[in-house]
Amino acid sequence: MFTETAALGGLSVQLCYFRGMGEFAASPWLDRSEDLLRHMQAVRCRGGITQIERVLKHAARQARESRIGALVLVGDCMEEDVDRVCVAAGELGLLSVPVFAFHEGYDPAALRAFRQIAQITKGACCRFDLSSARHLRDLLSAVAVYAAGGHRALSVFGERRQGRALELSRQIGRK
């Protein structure tokens, strides 16, 4: 992601995650892949209910402080009230923060919710299979290019990379 966006002015990423009994964490803003990797490697999974609404509200607070080019949501389920989550997504939409929702697995309720979140925010939703790390890497790189350079940069990147990046570019182009 950082390599793809260097020519576009760079990229800052904040890693947010939730787990367990209401635990939510957000890293500082990171602009080096080594720092992001270190934070990601420190995360450990714990059972608990999803907190997607909390993530969306956190992103809205951050966007009110400074520009956020995009939010990436990666998940496999959604156990919250979809209407409340969509209201939080609506706040991001009003702040012009598109959500790129990447759904892993086959939970139809989660996929519907992720699609609604993406639609409300003028983002995109794609399914991926965890057995294909390349797909997720391509999707994350495409979002990074969009966040750093906008739709035009994503279109060029999508045409060059094809595959999932082009799919994302086309979804955004239909908004």
Please report the total strand number as a whole number. Answer: 5
CATH architecture classification name: 3-Layer(aba) Sandwich
Largest sheet: 3 strands, parallel
C-alpha Rg (nearest Å): 15 Å
Average pLDDT confidence is 86
Distance between the termini: 24 Å
Helical coverage, percent range: 40-55%
Give the CATH topology. Answer: Rossmann fold
Shape: globular
The CATH class turns out to be Alpha Beta
Strand content: 5-15%
Low-confidence stretches: none
How many helical stretches?
7
Secondary-structure class: alpha/beta
Say which CATH homologous superfamily is assigned. Answer: von Willebrand factor, type A domain
Spatial strand order of the main sheet: 3-4-5
H/E series, N to C? HEEHHEHEHEHH
Which SSEs are present, and which pair or pack?
Blueprint: H1 2-5, E1 16-19, E2 23-26, H2 33-42, H3 52-65, E3 71-75, H4 82-94, E4 99-104, H5 108-121, E5 124-128, H6 133-161, H7 163-173
Parallel strand pairs: 3-4, 4-5
Antiparallel strand pairs: 1-2
Helix pairs in contact: 3-4, 4-5, 6-7
Structural features, described:
- It is a single chain.
- This protein has 175 residues and is of the alpha/beta class.
- The protein has one domain: Rossmann fold (3-Layer(aba) Sandwich), CATH 3.40.50.410.
- It is 54% helix and 14% strand.
- The protein has seven helices and five strands; from the N terminus they run H-E-E-H-H-E-H-E-H-E-H-H.
- The chain has helices at 2-5, 33-42, 52-65, 82-94, 108-121, 133-161, 163-173, and strands spanning 16-19, 23-26, 71-75, 99-104, 124-128.
- It starts with a helix and ends with a helix.
